[in-house]
């Protein structure tokens, strides 16, 4: 009878370039796996360097430092006798630099696997840095043979088939797969098609945490050779999962928390609202961006509108109300209800709140510019001045109190240029950068089902920048439902204007939105990073030329 074998998989939160800190978290996971009596520990892709190291990989000193850290870590892991540790790291030789995974046991390296499929689309640029491997890697523990692959390899059947032909019973998959709405379902489908159909079960261990524009959601899981989900960890939390394998049967072991705050349940939730999933991604992305860049506090311009309200709610969930400063900066165009709603929300959340009236400063600007402007009529110039005054005030508070400014603009505004350079675009991080306006409202409504922190009037009233009398966003833009639909066609599907018009949308609206998207690339290049949650986000995922004569 084949003896049983126990495998642990640890979704951990690593920081790119933090070799010592990353190694410490790996050791922590190994200690827990050893304490629980596991035979194998599977860790995420590039767990030692963090993902993605990008141009750090072009620095010889970084590669040398990583190799020294790997050797030291290999010696440390030898303390955990009889535990096979499958660890992601970088290998650099005269044949190239490789995205690799090694199997360490009692201080020895049983073999190193080199990633075969190097993604070079969307946010990925691995062919810039890595050389592809060609050979499978298998190892046997208690008569059960494991194959090793890395992330993109399983999106193609060839790597899994090669592992199976080499004798693998179960595939161990190291991953750094960034979050996207409902991506977990796609991963399951891919594994069932490319791994289970080859006759193997699989253990899929994914990275967790925020890294610049990317959020890694974890959601690690185990499927048997029939494609049934045997074990699964929730997203956006540190956890150690486990599975017992005997005679081809998989039995889930209770997951264990370790490391950072465990406010998120370890077990995946059935039928969870997509808004809840997105909210957790935004909270983790915001928290990790701030903490990994050594910001303890944040300041937000709170306008009484929906976007700043949602950003404040995300920030409170991410770093706590005690670390936030909300500032209302009313002008003569600001409605009383906007001030009242901003005060109300700050009180509900127990966030520090201040008001700075900008009318005196605005009047001073107008006086200074009057000799040059002469009799020219007022236009967006004066509107933008108000935004830029507010931006300067927020940055002054940021500098004085070492608090990062959280930008409140959403994806719909960035796409169409309805945002002001050096005004409402100032700041270090933009939690709503990839959130269309219609989704902003859905997120606000969902968050209020958890606790009523956003005043209902903020959600129900017509959106306005309040930069002139009786202004609303829909004065010059299509309804947001229409706008966001057009943007989805243009950005996520690369559809032409004609194709979009053929779906039944008005040509005038489609052509206007396409033009705004095209001509505002220069603004977006100067904007803050923010977490990616859709299939196409501004930033690494969107690489249109600023100088561009093509009309799509």
Structure description:
The protein has 552 residues and is of the alpha/beta class. Helix content is 36%, strand content 20%. The protein contains 16 helices and 19 strands. The protein has helices spanning 19-35, 60-77, 157-165, 183-194, 274-292, 306-319, 336-349, 359-373, 380-401, 411-416, 437-450, 456-460, 480-492, 497-501, 507-519, 521-524, and strands spanning 5-11, 40-42, 84-93, 96-105, 108-114, 138-141, 144-150, 170-175, 201-206, 208-211, 214-217, 221-223, 229-232, 239-246, 249-256, 297-301, 324-328, 352-355, 403-405. The strands form four sheets. A seven-stranded mixed beta sheet has the order 5-4-3-2-1-14-15, covered by helices on one side. Helix 7 (336-349) links the parallel strand 17 and strand 18. Helix 1 (19-35) runs parallel beside helix 2, helix 5 (274-292) crosses helix 11 (437-450) and helix 13 packs across helix 15. The chain is elongated and about 85 Å long. The chain starts with a strand and ends in a 28-residue tail after the last helix.
Please summarize what this structure is.
The chain is of the alpha/beta class. The chain has 16 helices and 19 strands.
Kindly list the characteristics that best describe this protein:
six-stranded mixed sheet; 552 residues; seven-stranded mixed sheet; alpha/beta
Helices, strands, pairings?
Layout: E1 5-11, H1 19-35, E2 40-42, H2 60-77, E3 84-93, E4 96-105, E5 108-114, E6 138-141, E7 144-150, H3 157-165, E8 170-175, H4 183-194, E9 201-206, E10 208-211, E11 214-217, E12 221-223, E13 229-232, E14 239-246, E15 249-256, H5 274-292, E16 297-301, H6 306-319, E17 324-328, H7 336-349, E18 352-355, H8 359-373, H9 380-401, E19 403-405, H10 411-416, H11 437-450, H12 456-460, H13 480-492, H14 497-501, H15 507-519, H16 521-524
Parallel strand pairs: 1-2, 2-3, 7-8, 8-9, 16-17, 16-19, 17-18
Antiparallel strand pairs: 1-14, 3-4, 4-5, 6-7, 9-12, 10-11, 12-13, 14-15
